[in-house]
Structure formats: structure tokens, C-alpha cells
Amino acid sequence: MGRSIFKGNSDQPEDSAKLIFRAVTANGSRRGIRLENAFWTSLAEIAGEEGKRVGDLIEEYSERYPMLDNATGAVRLGVLESLRKRYNERKAARDVKLTLGVVAGSPAPAFALSSDKKIISYNSAFLTLLQARLSPLSSDVIGSGLKLQLDIPFEGLVARLKDDPQNPIVVNYTIVAQQKALRGRMNAVLADPAEGGAIIGFLIN
């Protein structure tokens, strides 16, 4: 199993900080560059994940950040940006799993609404309510044919929840499917108070 891209090749800080000079090849030309050992390790792992050679990755970073005076600075910035991107991707995946778990575990009908206003998850109680009030519904309709309307603009709702993430906001909703409508109220909360953008709706009635 390969090491995480967040680790150097040693648990000793002095080993990670050790400057190492290496010659790399990109586009048929060679260049020498001196970097901390931790950056060489991360470069190798990022290049491996992206199917590139280390030299080509260094050249890519140099072209991406022409405002920097040398390749060393460009590589350091490029590696940090790559690690930050991977961290955000993994955090987003964890946040989605957490949201799905909260929705599924709610005893009340509940659903998650993404930042682009699409229902991305719902629980069995929500499904039971829809089938009882809007039946019969096919799985295709439940998956993509539901239309949700709120009495508060979505962006405004998210902004208000960000201002006071500890308290839910009661919102009137209308769910439309196959020319039938279900109306009621729900408690809206941020799916991730630290990030915002997506909400979870817990239906009251």
C-alpha cells in the first residue's frame, strides 16, 4: 500500500526537511532542482496518481505559475495546491456520507437538497409520505421527477442559515409530482455548517 500524499518518506521531521538536489527531464531537456525531501515524496506520489513523470509535473507547475522567479517556488506551490485539492475532495466525500447518514437516521420524513437545488437523498419516512399523499409514484419520478418549491429563495435561505447555523428555519414547501402537489412545513438546517450550500429538510407536516 502506498503512503498518503500528506506524509513524507520518514516520520522524522529532519528527514522530511532535508534538501535534496536532483536532475529531472521534461520535454527532452534536463534541469536541476533542489527541494525538501517531503516535496520530492509528494511529487512522486502526485505524478504517479496522475500518470505523469516527475519531470513533466515540475514543468507543468513552472508553466502554471510563471510569476514565480524559479522552479522551486512553483513546485512548492503546485504541490500545496494539489494536496489542498485532494483534501477538499476527500472532505466533500465525507460530508456527503455524513449528510446521507443524518437523513437516513431521521425518524421524521427528511431529505437533503444540494446547492444546485436537487434532492440528493431522502429517507424511508419521506418515501412513505410521498407514496401515501401522491400515489402512485414510479421510482423514476421519485428519483428525478420531483419538483420542490420553497416560500423562501434558496440562496436567501442558505444565507440566513449561515448567519445563525444553530437554529433551524421553518419553511413552507410544495412538492409536485405528476400534477399532484404536497404542501407543508419543514425545518431547514445546513447540511454542513462549516461549509454551507446544501440543506437538510425535516418535514413537520
Describe the structure.
With 205 residues, this protein is of the alpha+beta class. It is built from seven helices and eight strands; from the N terminus they run H-E-E-H-H-H-E-E-H-H-E-H-E-E-E. It has helices at 13-17, 37-50, 54-64, 71-105, 124-134, 139-145, 154-163, and strands at 19-26, 29-36, 110-113, 119-122, 147-150, 169-177, 180-190, 199-203. A hairpin with a 2-residue loop joins strand 6 (169-177) and strand 7 (180-190). 21% of the residues are buried.
Oligomer: single chain
What does the overall shape look like? elongated
Architecture of the largest domain, according to CATH? 2-Layer Sandwich
Mean pLDDT across all residues, rounded? 83
**Class per helix and strand makeup:** alpha+beta
Strand order of the largest sheet: 4-3-8-7-6-5
Strand content: 25-35%
User: Kindly, what is the distance between the CA atoms of the first and last residues, rounded to a whole number of angstroms?
Assistant: 51 Å
CATH topology of the largest domain: Beta-Lactamase
Low-confidence stretches: 1-10
Annotation, overall tally of beta strands: 8
The main sheet comes to:
6 strands, antiparallel
The percent range for helix content is 40-55%
User: What is the radius of gyration?
Assistant: 25 Å
CATH class of the largest domain: Alpha Beta
